[in-house]
Structure formats: structure tokens, C-alpha cells
Amino acid sequence: MKRQQTDKIARIAITIVAALVVIPIILVILFIIINGIGTLSWEFFTQPPGNGMKEGGIMPALLGTIILTFGTAIAAIPLAIGAAIYLAEYAKENRLTRWVRIAIVNLAGIPSIVYGLFGLGMFVLFMGFGTSIIAGSLTLGIMTLPVVISASEEAILAVPQEFRVVSLSLGATKWQTIRHQVLPQALPGIITGIILGLGRAAGETAPILFTVAAFYLPELPRSAFDQTMALPYHLYVISTQVPGMPMDVQYGSALVLLLLVLSMTLIATVVRTGMRRKREW
Questions:
Q1: Of 32, 188, 257, 276, which sits most exposed with the smallest number of CB within 10 A?
Q2: What does the pLDDT profile of the chain (281 residues) look like in tens digits?
Q3: CA 206 – CA 61 distance, rounded (Å)
Q4: Measured between alpha carbons, how far is 85 from 170 in angstroms, rounded to an integer?
Q5: Are 207 and 140 in contact (CB under 8 A)?
């Protein structure tokens, strides 16, 4: 009887804690939706800002965010998955690999503004890319690496050892085993890590502030060496730097950024769920 009461108290406490975490998030999302939904229109999505950014739309900033997210994926995903495969399948367990893993975990906790300063010094100044899409994408890519590496390594290590043993016993090489057996089974977890990293990159302001973001550009970027507007920085600008900015424009921009990140998460969830159903364990 006492154990049942303890279990009931524990369930109630956990439920309360979960509610304290979830309810404020839901309230914030609802507040942004209620205040920003009236601003959304076809013109808002397809027109550039006008009249000192107090009118018009967010098309250049929205397109710039999508371009930067795509560039981040190109810069981070191959390197991150390669590093995860090496750490999980090839690296020996020794002091060096333990230090590498600790370094990766610590890199995930570094403030984003530090990555921005690193991107400014490395890509903008030292490598001569200037404030450009390529400099911003590389900076965001480096910031995304630790999250994707950690999630991908955990997903690869979670694949049962039997897949490797059977594949190797049938004459497959180690790489063939990884390519055709391990990675397909680990893909749901890898996709989760990728989306977490890209979702963070899509909403960051500090790194792009130093490397790529522009206050206002009347024309769309034409190459990877051009500047671009981006939704996080655009939202910061219209909220703090433009006097008399209508609140509905601010909340509308915030809502679009929120919907962009949530749509990425939703797509990843659908893909991951479908892959998990096909998984053989």
C-alpha cells in the first residue's frame, strides 16, 4: 500500500513538473499566434519591406533564412555524420577519444555570440569572404556540428551489434556493413540530430550579425559572397532599431520564424516516424 501511494505521489509530481514546462511554452506560442496571425498575407510573404520597414513584407528576410539554413546543412551534415561514424565505428576507446567527446559536448554549450566572433575573425577577415552567405553558413555550420555529431553517434551506437556481426560474417567489409546495415537503422536518430541543429541555426541572431546579416537590402543576393537579410536579425532590427514600428508587423515576423522552425520539426518527425516503422529492431 505504501509503495502504491509513493508511486501515485511520484506520478503527480512528475505531471506537475511537466505542466510547468509545457504550459508556458504553449502560452507563448498562442500569444504570438493571436497577435501575429492577422498580419499574414500573400503580400507579407512576397513583398520586401517598405516605408522604413513599417510596411510591406518579409520576403528577402525569409528567403535569406532559407538560404542560410540550406548552406548550414551543406557545411555541417557531411562532416558531422563522418565524424560520428568515425567515433562510433572506427575510433578506439582511449584517452584521446574521451577528450574528443568531452570537447564536442563543451562546444555544444558555447554561447552563439562566441561562434559569431570566431566566424568574423576566421571567415570574414582571415579567409577574406567578407560579410557574406558563405561566411554565415560556415559559421552556423560549425555551431551546428556538436549537436549533429552527438546525436548521430548515439544513434549509430544504438544499432544492435548483431547487424554488424551478421554482415561481417557474410563477407561484407566494415564500410559495406556501415553503409548498408548500420546507417539505415540509425537514420531516424541522425535525422533528429540534424533537425535540432538546423532549427537552432535558423533562429540564431548573434552569429549572422557578425558574418552575413544586413539591415536592409533592396535586392536579393546573387551569389554566395553577397550579404542577405535574415528573419532573426530582421526581427531584432524592427523590434529595437525602428521607432514607431507597428506591433503586428513584429509579431507577424516572429510568427513566420516560429512556423518555419516548427515546420522543419514536423517534417522531420513525419520522416522519422515512417523510418522507425520500417526499422528491423
A1: 276
A2: 667 788 888 899 999 998 888 999 899 999 999 998 988 888 899 888 888 788 888 999 999 999 999 999 999 999 999 999 999 999 888 888 899 999 998 888 889 999 999 999 999 999 999 999 999 999 999 999 999 999 999 999 999 999 899 999 988 899 999 998 899 889 888 988 898 889 888 888 889 999 998 888 877 888 899 999 999 999 988 888 888 888 888 999 999 999 998 888 888 788 778 777 776 66
A3: 16
A4: 21
A5: yes
Enter the pTM of the model.
0.88
Give the span between the Cα atoms of 147 and 151, in whole angstroms: 6
C-alpha cell at 192: 533528429
123: Cβ contacts below 8 Å, ≥ 6 apart? 129, 134, 135, 138, 139, 211
Boundaries of every domain in the chain: 60-160+188-278
Provide CB contacts within 8 A for 262, sequence distance 6+.
none
| Residue 95 grid coordinates | 584517452
Task: Please say whether the structural domain 60-160+188-278 has been given the CATH code 3.30.530.20.
Answer: no
Spatial CA neighbour of 198 closest among 85, 67, 107? 67
For residue 194, the tally of other CB atoms under 10 A from its CB is 22
Q: Does residue 5 contact residue 11 with C-beta atoms inside 8 Å? A: no
Other beta carbons within 10 Å of 165: 11
